[in-house]
Here is the input.
Amino acid sequence: MTEKAKINLLGMTRQELTDFFAQRGEKPFRAVQVLKWIHQRDCTDFAAMTDLSKAVRGWLADEAEIRTPEIVLEQCAADGTYKWLLRLDDGNCIETVFIPEDGRGTLCVSSQVGCALDCSFCSTARQGFNRNLTSAEIIGQLQVARGRLQPEEGQSRVISNVVLMGMGEPLLNFEPVVAAVSLMVEDNAYGLSRRRVTVSTSGIIPAMDRLHETLHVALALSLHAPNDALRNELVPINRKYPLGPLMDACRRYVGKGGHHSRITMEYVMIDGVNDTPGHARELVRLLRDVPCKINLIPFNPFPDAGYRRSSEAALSRFRGILIQAGYTTITRRPRGDDIDAACGQLVGRVEDRTRRALRYARVPNASGVTPP
Ligand code: SAH
Here is the structure.
């Protein structure tokens, strides 16, 4: 007789777990007990859940499991950044990054295997796309990272912030992302504040509105260009969701008067492409009445990217114009780039269904040489 597949409880929200127990004649507080065991005590063994009755522990062990992705490779960069390559059940691999900073630690989580979008400056795009991650695979990244990181003395937790800025477009994998995020902010699970969980999007307008109604967490927008012609080139999804309607969606997200926290505008600085003073002035006009702060990200290189990082002079000129116009502007220094863990360098190991990887392999690179 073949064994029945077990139900993985790892990615279940509080409501889903409550329903799971209700269907088996158990009270709702069982869900809270199990949530705490999984997400606060890192316990994956039902036998150790001592506040559950023996009978409940018994049938849980028969029917269910708590299964996290498997670590294939762990790397630690000179600056303390960690990167993990994680294998999923189907053999695909994704990457997760931990970035320690003064007083906080940020986990950068993936939402898809590869990415279906085709942003010209991102190495994940070159991998093509395989599938969406499940909520268990998304929250599992937090579980795995937590298990590998020890809090320093006086620190209550190592991971204080989560950003969905790893592989994939989170808003094209809506339900599993929302389920995983709801566990990140659930008091009986990780209990992070909503301001400390950031969803980063290339600008999927209908999903931004849905997120606003469903679970209001911090939002980052990958802007990268101040006009449609350039953004169409760098972030091709812009053809479907252009800047005018996109800025309207940003205003809706922050609400009237910007009473929800401002949107973070991400802007990758690429030499000679989007980094001139003219671009900066255009950006100031575009963002005039959008409550936001601006994050400048020096372009991180990868093989055959065909782009270069902006010079320090260009960066500081660009930043100066934004600051003078009154925008909070931060330059994000590359972290973990010696292990290819910086923004846009995540590649995982994707079984590409889109044949995009093949297409890129045939395109001559910037030096005009076609790779073998
Ligand atoms: N799909 C989502 C989340 C993943 S990308 C999004 O587009 O927001 C996370 C951030 O890294 C985005 O702002 C992305 O534009 C940026 N990024 C991608 N490639 C990069 C590169 N080569 N150098 C610097 N930043 C990059």
In short: Confidence is low (pLDDT under 50) at residues 363-372. Residues 135-148 form the longest helix (14 residues).
